[in-house]
């Protein structure tokens, strides 16, 4: 029987994060979310303990281990050599499979007779297995091969469906096993990508807080606070990532794991995904539309985008109320139909889905828009004060990424300033999530602020 813990933003956070596993949380907004994750095991030499872990979390009977061609070589063969009873293997026939609906359905069909699954990989493999396990309503255990993204324990998968990057709600893994003897030897760009994904947390939590005050979305600071002590390890010591420091990388993957837990606790990806993730998704969507390889790892793109959105927040925080033309902003509303044709032309076969997503957050009338402008005008300083605690570490983010040797500039992603500008301005349309991009656009400052920030970076 699951105990219920009431969590509020003022609740003290226990540094024994295991207290938040396998619990039901009732938020002050009245919503209740269950964390089904039972175990998160991180340490050296843990892979041989996988059979015992499976037993402890209730994974019995016919299991299927799923890996791709790369992760099979990295760890899949070692798992098979453990001789787990009734464990079968499915190797996805690709060294770099895509996280799209077609591949997800193929994996789901391939494991149709399983009673539980084991994912052996990082982002894409984990998402494909998570999707399949949810479809079959069976548990799965994630075995990490790289600390490259924060989706190991989340309750969503990111899939491309008909050209649109979507998130699909699923059931999280029942356990994560991260053997640091394996993850510390992941390719350096994957380690840097994990850092890039994590440094977004302060900024995306600012987006979440902003959405709660402007759009009334439920917000709780606990998911952000839960890994704050880990941030104090991996940010200042990011320079130890290229040397594969076990302590720093263990802190990195623990933060990654509990970042996923934070999304489950919140009932959405808001604690770990804001405007910076939308920018990364647009880059992926454009690459797939052009039938080209993705520009880089998701986390690497997120890191670059985070520096941009953090600087947008810096601009917001230093803009006084009287510098905004509130009268112009009040009348600067267009009906959805005025955007729809351009969005369909921009996104092709994904156009209808993009229009539907944007419609969910676009003010339904001039009256609704004017009411939001009135709120922004009257609460401008309150909004600035509310997000300040989340974005004060902007310089630390830049220093950490640079110290780890991670990419920090759009040019490193192969983008021109013009292309990156278009990506940023398009990002707010593809999801219904309210972010700093929406706020600045609403008050008429998005285009000029993006231009100023990018020019300031040279």
Describe the secondary-structure layout.
Elements: E1 4-7, E2 23-27, E3 32-35, E4 39-43, H1 50-56, E5 63-68, H2 69-80, E6 87-92, H3 101-110, E7 116-121, H4 123-136, E8 140-144, E9 156-161, E10 164-169, E11 175-179, H5 180-183, H6 188-198, H7 201-215, H8 222-225, H9 228-234, H10 246-266, H11 275-289, H12 298-317, H13 326-331, H14 336-347, H15 351-359, H16 366-391, H17 394-403, H18 417-427, H19 436-442, H20 446-457
Helix pairs in contact: 3-4, 6-10, 6-12, 7-16, 9-10, 11-12, 11-18, 12-16, 12-17, 12-20, 14-15, 18-20
Could you explain how this protein is built, in words?
The chain is of the alpha/beta class. The protein folds into 2 domains: about 40-185, Rossmann fold; about 185-458, Dehydroquinate synthase-like, alpha domain, CATH 1.20.1090. It is built from 20 helices and 11 strands. A 6-stranded parallel sheet has the order 4-11-8-7-5-6, with helices on both faces. It has a 3-stranded mixed sheet with strand order 1-2-3, with helices on one face. The longest helix is centred in the C-terminal third of the chain and has 26 residues, at about 365-390.
């Amino acid at each position: 029987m699951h105990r219920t813990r009431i969590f509020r933003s003022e609740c003290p956070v226990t540094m024994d994060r295991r207290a938040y596993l396998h619990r039901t949380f009732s938020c002050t907004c009245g919503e209740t979310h269950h964390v089904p994750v039972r175990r998160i095991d991180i340490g050296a030499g843990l892979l041989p303990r996988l059979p015992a872990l499976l037993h402890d979390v209730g994974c019995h009977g016919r299991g299927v281990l799923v890996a791709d061609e790369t992760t099979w070589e990295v760890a899949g063969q070692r798992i098979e050599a453990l001789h787990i009873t009734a464990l079968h293997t499915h190797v996805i026939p690709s060294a770099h499979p895509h996280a799209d609906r077609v591949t997800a359905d193929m994996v789901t069909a391939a494991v149709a007779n399983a009673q539980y699954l084991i994912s052996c990989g990082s982002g894409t493999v984990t998402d494909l297995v998570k999707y399949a396990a949810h479809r079959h309503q069976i548990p799965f255990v994630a075995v990490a091969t790289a600390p490259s993204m924060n989706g190991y324990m989340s309750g969503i998968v990111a899939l491309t469906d008909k050209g649109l990057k979507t998130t699909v709600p699923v059931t999280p893994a029942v356990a994560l096993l991260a053997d640091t003897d394996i993850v510390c030897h992941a390719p350096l760009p994957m380690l840097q990508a994990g850092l890039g994904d994590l440094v977004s947390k302060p900024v995306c939590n600012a987006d979440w807080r902003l959405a709660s005050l402007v759009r009334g979305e439920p917000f709780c600071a606990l998911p952000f606070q839960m890994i704050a002590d880990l941030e104090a390890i991996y940010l200042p010591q990011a320079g130890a990532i290229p040397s594969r420091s076990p302590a720093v990388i263990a802190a990195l993957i623990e933060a990654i794991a509990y970042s996923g837990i934070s999304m489950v606790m919140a009932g959405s990806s808001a604690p770990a995904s804001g405007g910076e993730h939308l920018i990364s998704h647009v880059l992926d969507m454009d690459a797939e539309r052009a039938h080209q390889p993705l520009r880089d790892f998701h986390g690497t793109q997120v890191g670059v985008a985070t520096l941009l959105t953090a600087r947008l927040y810096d601009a917001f925080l230093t803009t006084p109320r009287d510098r905004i033309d509130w009268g112009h902003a009040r009348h600067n509303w267009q009906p959805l139909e005025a955007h729809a044709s351009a969005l369909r032309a921009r996104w092709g076969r994904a156009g209808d889905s993009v229009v539907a997503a944007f419609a969910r957050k676009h003010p339904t009338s001039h009256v609704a828009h004017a009411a939001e402008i009135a709120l922004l005008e009257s609460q401008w300083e309150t909004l600035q004060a509310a997000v300040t605690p989340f974005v004060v570490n902007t310089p630390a983010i830049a220093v950490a990424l640079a110290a780890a040797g991670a990419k920090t500039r759009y040019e490193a992603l192969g983008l021109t300033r013009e292309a990156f500008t278009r990506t940023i301005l398009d990002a707010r349309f593809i999801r219904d999530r309210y972010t700093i991009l929406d706020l600045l656009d609403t008050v008429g400052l998005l285009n000029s602020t993006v231009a100023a920030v990018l020019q300031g970076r040279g």
